Amino acid sequence: MxxxxxxxxxxxxxxxxxxxxxxxxxxxxxxxxxPEQAYVGPxxxxxxxxxxxxxxxxxxxGLTYGGMAGIDTPVGKRGRVGLEAQVAGSTAAWTMASSSTxxxxxxLTEDKxxxxxxxxxxxxxxxxxxxxxxxxxxxGYAYSRFTASTRENxxxxxxxxxxxxxxxxxxxxxxxxxxxxxxxxxxxxxxxGEIAVDTVGTGYKAERxxxxxxxxxxx
Length: 219
Known about the structure:
CATH class of the largest domain: Mainly Beta
Number of helices: 1
Radius of gyration: 26 Å
CATH topology of the largest domain: Porin
Oligomer: single chain
Low-confidence stretches: 14-19, 21-30
């Protein structure tokens, strides 16, 4: 009888503990997802521009900087969906040098593709893994302005604007520093396709890899 009593007390204590934990978890599930929030903030990170064709690939890095604005809203107990827009600039530039000799004259040629303004709009889907922490994925449309130029023996001989567009995907995390301020870290990849100068294809394809951080203010 004493053993049965001890087992009963032990099982009762476990049931009370489990019930308490379940109640606590349920309360957390209810409170874990913040309300709808619009946000704005700056972005800063590292930008890698990759240029490739058959048998050739080269990458150049630089600083990317800009800002974003968006809105996200809760879906269920932990899910979030939203829409955001970004505008940024970059110091990344790709160059390729070559030389040719005709008779006694050697010409050094440098082709350069420099990144300019970068525009993005897309959707965001997130999941609250903790009361202050959200992981998310993004997918959208990117439109980027580049400048293509050629120098021969140090003298600029040609320059043209190049507009590239494609899709961008990303993944990252946000952490709430306060009810209105969130820190963000995100990796994103942009695929543009073939580069064309004055509607003439060059045979080169462009891609972009970026790691960016942001400080977002929600209201």
